[in-house]
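Render this sequence as a predicted structure.
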Amino acid sequence: MNREWILSSRRSRWATQLPWALCPIIFACCVSVAEAETADLTEAPTVAASLSQRFAAEDATEVADFQRHVGPLLGRLGCNGRACHGSFQGRGGFQLSLFGYDFGADHAALLDEHSGRVDTSDIEESLILAKPIDSELHEGGQRMEKDSWQYRALRSWIAGGAEYSGELQKLDELSVTPREIRFDREGGEVPLRVIAKWADGTREDVTELCRYTSNDDVVAEIDEDGVIRSGQAGDTHIVVAYDKAVVPIAVMRPADNDGRSIEPPRQSLHRVDELVQAKLDKLNIVPSAICSDADFVRRASLDVTGMLPSPERVEAFLADTSSDKREALIEELLASAGYAAWWATRLSDWTGNNEAQLNNYFPLRNYASQFWYAWLKKRLAENMPYDDIVEGIVLAESRLPGESYEEYCESMTDACRDNNPD
């Protein structure tokens, strides 16, 4: 439960040192690292080689698969990105789904006779092949060479009839190795290897077909081939995306601190402390000692309610000699109206609660954002677990049970009338 987690973390030594907004992030990262270290990365002995090997020769006879190869390859080439054909308005009169998640729509767009992208009767004139190899013809510049494996893979699919069955193949697992990386210097490099395991039992090296992003380029950069290069000290995650899977890889470069002269804080038995300590050890960070009562009452009040404590509350807290006064303060703050109000505001910020994004769901200015905030505030006040709150957002349905689409439209129309007293 949220209150129990907050109470436990507030009793811990780390929560007295770190900004409260960072605690859930650090906690999540620690869990991610712990899970990565215990993951079973054993691969089956039969893993199909990468496309660059299978289409290295001009006489390669394999036909690339649309879902497994063509869509992801278009993503690697940048074709279905936000700045190109994946944008909401398309580019050059041609549109693909963003990052290629809609295989049916993309296949239909590619085979549209008016687009000229795929021509099975004159393969070499297919614009999907002709444009990316010609920097003058292609507004996005040259994306591949004519004698490249990328060109041969795309050509094989067109030559094979440019087929797509429309039946979605299930990706069971995307295994990325290594799952955690610790650099000891700036400029170090580590290549990733990505194996896709499909429901039919086949496994394939798809390292060259993934999209890679770094959450912090200052700490770690990654190129299109999946090679990570370390930067400044810190920690971040590299995100690997392929088909429906998104896998985060923890990347750290420990600080150049010499903590031998710093007296470490006393051992804590709180689980949050143990996880944070494991992460700090990996980053070579020595935490400071437990904060003073004056610091605690200020930090706890700001973190839990977003407000400074009153002078009277500070004086009372400092004068209190009981051993459990910090726990009592936390309970007091969590029971206050400020807790739900402040964290509903924070969660509204993180979930994009603004008129521009909510207009399509409730087209009345100011109301949608108010309703979203009120929804969050009510659940925080009731101490609903965070996973249940996320589930409520992700799996929400606008229609009431048994309500038809027509009835839903009528009720929403009535609700959006200017003269509606409700």
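Summary. The CA atoms of residues 262 and 286 lie 7 Å apart. Confidence is low (pLDDT under 50) at residues 4-44.
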